[in-house]
Design brief:
- It contains 11 helices and 27 strands.
- With about 475 residues, it is α/β, with parallel strands linked by helices.
- A hairpin with a 4-residue loop joins strand 3 and strand 4.
């Protein structure tokens, strides 16, 4: 029986285990943490519930659940004897493997800020550092300050204000996501956050932290029961370096997600593929799916999708394709829409009528459709305004009806037509559609779009019934 050992306790490891069970892996699957009590308060549960066969129909028995050693902390990889050494309560243990997967989360970067490091070298009480897979379990108090400019900072601030905390977001740049969205769109995002009750302080940095307060460069003092640092992360490559694997900025992997040792694979924030360090939930999901298929005997190769970001918050629907610099490449044609009163923005860079890069806000259907066209390298339909505003599609010769085939859930590859079929079969709520299709059960970023589709289809059905009666 084949023994697969997974080192890591974050989303990449969780997702890999779930997908291996989904694909029927019958060997021994063991998961070890990389930090003391790494699995900590996070229960080992799959991301979403796979559906086998028709709803309500009994499926085949599930493969064995993984053995999760929550107390073990990996200390070394012994490649010669194919085992991983770990420490449990001061005692060293050995875990043999036939295939080893490194799936460690990235390490949060801590800014050099006076008062931020405790007497024992760790963060003091009231300071929490979040990496890409951060959890809000230790974020307490009525007043919380989030420091950071990126997606994680915005998502964390959004979640905190939703649960009733007085929330301040401190950004070094003028607006949140300024680098990813540009000036106009990031300013609109800031307005949406402020309407929701988040105080946004842009264009400044913190200079000192003390218990209960944060001092900014302009002299402002912000009260903070908890300071949440969303100030970047670095790949955790320590075990790989110690084992003599090839490491550049991340652990180097090939199209089989193998390291320089063919018996050792790596996925997630710790990896580097084709010269690029992996980031983003969607990429981690793709890698986990690809490796699950590889380890269960399927002949596939990992092919990353084009870079994309979709913000995971109910306060604003924001997405980017490519990078902001791609909007200024030579030979591109720009298409734009700015509608501040209705909170809508779009900026597309086209080459040969195909999307090279895009920034979108407040246009959920356009986000799904343009994302699909970009991944397929298909031309945009001629009615660009209709596409952005979700008006009835008028296809030109050779155009695919991309709007109907839009990929709504990136994590689980669920398309609009799949959701519509499930809705017509009786799944009339977001929860029911999640059970039937797995949409929304990954990062959750598509939940709002799925809810809107439920409303549209319910309205259309009601109009049809009224006309028939």
């Amino acid at each position: 029986m084949r023994r697969v050992l997974v080192v890591g306790d974050g989303p990449a490891a969780h997702r890999l285990v779930e997908r291996m069970r989904h694909h029927g892996f019958g060997g021994t699957l063991t998961v070890l943490g990389t930090t003391p009590q790494g699995c900590g308060p996070r229960p080992w549960v799959p991301y979403g519930t796979p559906v086998v066969g028709e709803p309500g129909a009994p499926g085949p028995p599930s493969p064995p659940a993984p053995r999760v050693d929550r107390a073990a902390v990996v200390t070394r990889i012994d490649r010669d004897s194919r085992r991983v050494l770990a420490r449990v309560s001061g005692t060293e243990t050995a875990h043999p493997y036939d295939a080893l997967v490194l799936a460690a989360d990235a390490r949060p970067l801590i800014p050099d800020l006076p008062g931020l490091v405790g007497v024992e070298g760790g963060l003091p009480e009231g300071v929490v550092a979040l990496g890409p897979a951060g959890t809000g379990a230790r974020i307490t108090g009525d007043a919380v300050v989030v420091q950071g400019d990126g997606p994680l900072a915005v998502e964390t601030a959004s979640a905190l204000v939703a649960r009733g905390a007085t929330t301040t977001l401190v950004c070094a740049r003028p607006h949140p996501l300024f680098r990813q969205l540009g000036g106009t769109c990031s300013a609109m995002l800031r307005e949406d956050l402020e309407r929701a009750g988040i105080t946004v302080i842009g264009g400044t940095t913190a200079v000192r932290h003390a218990a209960g307060r944060l001092q900014l460069a302009d002299g402002t003092i912000v009260h903070a029961d908890t300071l949440v640092l969303c100030t970047g992360a670095a790949p955790d490559t320590a075990l790989a370096r110690q084992a003599g694997l090839d490491v550049h900025d991340g652990i180097v992997v090939d199209d089989q997600l193998r390291t320089s040792d063919p018996l050792i694979h790596a996925i997630g924030d710790c990896t580097e593929y084709d010269g690029q360090v992996v980031d983003g939930r969607t990429t981690i999901w793709e890698q986990a799916e690809a490796l699950a298929e590889i380890l269960t005997g399927r002949a596939i190769s990992y092919q990353p999708r084009p870079r994309a970001l979709r913000l995971r918050t109910d306060l604003a629907d924001v997405a980017t394709i490519g990078a902001l610099a791609d909007l200024h490449q030579p030979g591109t044609r720009l298409v734009g829409l700015t509608d501040r009163p209705r909170r809508r923005y779009a900026r597309l860079a086209l080459r040969d009528d195909r999307v090279v890069a895009a920034v979108l806000l407040g246009l959920p259907q356009a986000i799904a459709t343009i994302g699909l066209l970009h991944r397929r390298a298909q031309r945009l339909p001629s009615d660009r305004l209709g596409l952005l505003l979700d008006l009835p599609h008028r296809p030109t010769s050779g155009d695919a009806d991309a709007n109907d085939d839009a990929q709504i859930c990136l994590c689980n590859n669920v398309r609009k037509q799949t959701l519509l079929r499930a809705w017509r079969s009786g799944s009339h709520t977001v929860t029911a559609l999640a059970e039937a299709t797995r949409a929304t059960t990954g990062c959750g970023g598509c939940r709002r779009v799925v809810a809107e589709l439920c409303g549209v289809w319910a309205r259309d059905a009601r109009i049809g019934w009224e006309r028939a009666s």
